[in-house]
Each structure stands twice: as C-alpha cells, then as structure tokens.
Amino acid sequence: MNKWIRGTNATVLSIAVIGIFIILTIFLHSLKGFQLDLTKNKSYTLSEQTVTTLKNLNQDIHIIAFTNVGQSTDDFLTKQVTDLAEEYKKQSSKITFDQYDMLKQPSMAKQYGVDQSGTLVFELGDKKKNINFYEMFNGQQDGSYTFSGEEKFTQAINNLTSTEKHVVYVLSGHQEYPLSAMTILNNSLQSENYDVKELNLYREGEIPDDASMLLLLGPQNDLNDKETELINTYLQNKGKIYIALGFNKDMATKWKNIDSIMNTFGIQDQHAVAIEAKQTSLFDPLTIIPEYGSHDITNKLSDYNLITMLSLAVSLNADESKTDWTKSLLLKTTDKAYGETDINLLTQSKTKQDDQDIKGPLNLGYAIENKDKKPKAVILGGSTFLLDQDIQNQGNKDFALNSIGWLQEQKDQVTIRPREGAAIQQAVITPSQANTIFLGTVIVLPLLFLIIGGIIWWRRRRG
Amino acid sequence: MRRVWAICSKELQMYFYSPVAYVAFAFYIVLSSFFFYVNFVVGQPPIVDARYVVGNTTFIYLFIIPLLTMRLVADEFRQGTDELLLTSPAGISEIVLGKYLSAFIVQIGLVAVSLIYPLIMSAFGELDKPILWLSYLSMFLLGCAMMAIGLFASSLTNNQMVAGIAGFVILLLLWLLDWLGDAFGGKLKDWIGQFSLTSHMANLQKGVLHGGDIVFYITLAAMFIVLSIQVLERKRWR
C-alpha cells in the first residue's frame, strides 16, 4: 500500500511539474512588453511612429517573406528582416507573419506574383505592397550597409491603411533646390501619403485646385509680381505655405516679394546671416544648432534630444503688432550668436561682430496659425537641412517632416521616425590570416585537448 | 549542500580523469571550429557578428550533450553502485542535483571554450557587445536545459548507449518543434513554437533581453531535474 501511494505521489508530482511548465511558458509568452533592448542602436525598440501606427491598426495585415535559404549574405539580410517582422507581430495582434522558401514552395510565390527571392509582401485584403530586401539596406562607402527596415515596414503599413492623399507643390523657377537634390525628403513624403509635384508658376499660370500646400525651398531669386499675386490669393483662401529661405548675397536688396509674403504673417526677414561664435571642432561658425521653442513640431525632438542643423541661416523677426496670426517660435540661436548684415564681407569669408550686426539670440523659424488656431504657414530662415547630404543628420528629417505634417494637420505624423540600424561590420581577412585561423582553431586547439586526455589516460594507466 | 558538492566533485573527477571527456571536447571543438572557419573565413563577405558562432555551436550540442550526460545515472545502475548511492545518507534530490551541478560546470566549460571565436572576430572589427554576451547567455541557458534533459534520459535506463540515444531523441523532438509548427502554420505554429528548444534564443541573439525566454530555459531544466528525481524515487521503492 505504502509503495503504491509513493508511486502515485511521484506520478502526480511529475504531471504537476509538466503542467506548471506548460502554463508558465504560455503565460510568459503572452507577456509581450517584458523585455529590455540592449542593442547599440536600440534596433528592436520600435519608434514612436511605428508604435502609434500599430496601435491604430484596425485591419489585419499579413506580412509574407519570400526567401531563398542557404546563401550566406542573403541569410544575414533575411534574418534582419524576419527578426523585425517578428517584432511587429509581437506589437500587434493584427499582424501575421509567414516566411516561405522560394525553392520549396514556388506555388506560394506564384500566388503572390513574386518572382524574386528576398521579397516582402504586405497584404491587406485585396491590397498588396511589395518591398525588396535590398531596398531596406543602404550601402556605405566602406562596403558595409545599414538597415532601414523599420521605416519601410511602417511606411508600407501606412500606405496600405491610409485612404487620403495630400498633393503638395514644390515651387520652381527661382533657382530653388530641385527635387532631385531632395530625394530623401521626397521619398519620405511620398511614403507618408503625400504626392509631391513640382510647380513652375511661369509655365502653369495658376495654382492647381488640388494643392494642399506650397513649398518654397531655398530660393535664390525673388518671385515676380504676378506669381506673388497668385500665391497671395491662394493663401487668402485655404492655401498653406512652407517657406525655407536660402542664402543669397543679394537677399537684402532683391527679395521684395518673398519678404512681402512673409510680412503678410508678420514675419520680417532681417537680411542677416546667423553666425554662431561658439565653434566646435565639428562645426564652423555658419552651422547653427538652434534651440527649440516649445511647439508640437519640436517638443518630441527636444524630448529625444535630437538636434536640427542649419547652415547659412537667415535671421527672422516677428512683428507682434500683427495680431491676426499666432506666431510660435520654432528655432533660435544662443545669445552668443549674431546676425552678420554685411553679406559682401561674409562672401569673402570675413566676418566680425560690429555695431551694424544684429545681437543674438536670433530667431530662425516660426510656425504660423490663424485666428481659428488652424496651421497656415511654416517660415524658416534656413533650408540646407532638407538636402540629401544633410537630411539624415540627427533630427533634420524629423524636423522637416514634422513641420510639414503639422501644417497639414496630420497629428500622427508629428512624431519621431525610425532610425537606421548600425552598419554591418565586414572583416578583411588575408590568406595568411585565414591559414592561421584554420590551423589554430581546427587543428591545434582540438589536438591540445586530445593530448591532455592522452596524458591523463597514460598516467592513470601507469598509476 | 555539502553532499551535493561531494557528488558533484566525484562526477567531475569521473569526467576529467577519463579520456572520454577530452575526446568529446576535442570533437566539439573540431566541429565548431570548422563551422566557424567556413562561416567567417570562407563565407563571403566575412561578417563580424557573434551570432554566427552561436547557431552552429548549439547545433553541435544536440550530439555532444547526450554523449556527455548519458553516463551520469545509467552508469551507476550498470555498475550496481546505485544501491549504495540510494541507500546512502544523501537524499535522491541531493544526488540528482550533485550530478546536474557537474553537468552544469561542464556546460560552462563548453561555452567558455567557444569564446575563442568572438575573440578571433574582434581582431577584425568591433563586435556588438550586448549581442555577443546575450547570444552567449542564450547558448549557455540552452545548454543547461539540454544537460537536464540528458540527465533525465540517463536516469531512465541502465544502459549508457540507450540513455544517450534516448537523450538525443528527446532533444531532437524538442528541437524540431519549430519545424513541426511551420508545417501547421497560423496560430498553431505560434502555440507549438513556444515550446521549441531554440525559439527562445531568437530574442537574446538579437540583443533583446526578454524575461520569458530566460525563465523558459530555467523552468525547462528544473522540470527535467524534478522528473529525474521522480524516476529515481520510483526505482527506490520498486
């Protein structure tokens, strides 16, 4: 009897232990957020934009990766992409993820019309969006590459779920920056559901009806009177404008019309270039790292300590007597900076603070709202941060996209976007180093253990 | 605790005074070195990332761990020393824990030896430290759980070979749960996948410390230790 009870006890205990293990595993698996991201760039902590997008997701999205397992480089890329997809799945129950091997399951690939391995398909009902793995990896000069998967993933989800599209027109004809010099901005805007078009008012003669915003980015020449009239009429109605001034040596004398448009909102161009006296080894005096004013556009940037960098920025001033508009300061320099008014001297790379110059702190950007608290304009003293070579620095891209998003009243697009992952490290191994590694690890090290084993065996046999 | 330690040190002596352990270690190093060489040197482009080492090394565990644990309890039965042990003042829990502790120490050795690969890699570029240490933690935890499974298999029989094979089969089944889940797809895949031996390594190898993963390996090891105790308990009263 005693034996029987003890036997039963052992069985019951064993079953209980197995049961506890199963329940605990399921319970812990269901705790999604119980984790600590220790990677260098916080690669697996999804950005605020992604988290918001996933939180607002109310339709099922199926992510399918078509891969070709077994190729070493491809495997590495595949792993990064599938790891990220798993992270999205963890964050939202609306996301499902599957991976298919192109060679083993060609019928699945055929069903989705995919003919290239390394393709990711985002599927929402009938709508599909394909992204090639290579689009998510940006090559570096040293041959390594960085991973921008999160940005592409979130954009794909936004594109699939969003139904509205805003058309924004970038003005041309005054030597503004061409769209080809701002491809990153252009692509980012498109993936946030903006349609970006160039508009030459000379040629078109009117502002199209679908324009939800005009962008005047880095003009070198003034607008002519007719254009100004068109723009003013547009702005009197529902129009919105985004002005980012570009430096020009004749700006004080020749920017009559641009100045007048800014003046409508009570913003004055002081025709002085901001010089930051406090130099660092990284920056020259013409590169300004402004402080942020408190505003929806900049609050998150200052929370995350992301700086915006402008160079050759023109200082602005708000005319407080124009009470029709609420003018919120976005960017200002330190009080050590000054505004150089002698542009000719500046073009010869000579500058010194004198009585003529404007004392800091200088104001470099404003957000304008009308009486109904509706966004109307964003006016910035600088525009270099929009260019491809600068926009990836620090908070530049977020500042650019946040200010456009704010102007369009897109609340969820005034946020912090995904950063790029760290570059993948590649080693350069010479043939002799390869030989040393082979000899050391495959031959010598195991041999060492065999010899020790042999000695012990021999000594024990003798002993 | 003193008895646990006494049994553990006796087991360690058995390991390291017999040439078998050295052959097993050498076998383990040859295989993992070969995989490392193929991946890091032959594979183009060579990528400085510790995760490559971990994937292959843990695969070798599947073969090496049953080899290292098969003797633990089964040998006592074969030699007839089990009776001595079971009637000794040490409780069965202490005996099992002592034997597991020795396997645990051997596991530390296995992980420590393979640190040579990231050391070589670090000469060619900078390793991402959190990824390196968390990957190695995942490798260690997995090994510890596998050792407990091997110990359990060894307690089932008095034949070392049978114990080894049984250990390998249990490990293989748990290892392949992922793959089995893939065959079903959907929610079932997720459900089955969470019990897979390897699925809980993914987060750690990404550099993400997820509490659930660590608890999984610890409870898995604990479960098999308790099961081993129960198996021996039954034997004692039979």
From TrEMBL, chain A:
The keyword Transmembrane helix applies. Residues 166-402 form the ABC-type uncharacterised transport system domain. It comes from the Bacteria. The chain crosses the membrane at residues 12-31, 437-458. InterPro entries: ABC_transp_unknown (IPR019196), DUF7088 (IPR055396). It holds the Pfam family ABC_transp_aux. Residues 40-128 form the DUF7088 domain. Keywords: Membrane, Transmembrane, Transmembrane helix. The keyword tRNA-binding does not apply. This is GldG family protein. It comes from Paenibacillus hexagrammi.
TrEMBL record, chain B:
Keywords: Cell membrane, Membrane, Transmembrane, Transmembrane helix. It is found in: Cell membrane. The keyword Membrane applies. InterPro entries: ABC-2_transporter_component. The chain crosses the membrane at residues 20-40, 52-74, 95-120, 132-154, 161-181, 214-232. Signal peptide: none annotated. It is a multi-pass membrane protein. It comes from the Bacteria. PANTHER family: MEMBRANE COMPONENT OF ABC TRANSPORTER YHHJ-RELATED, MULTIDRUG ABC TRANSPORTER PERMEASE YBHS-RELATED. This is ABC transporter permease subunit.
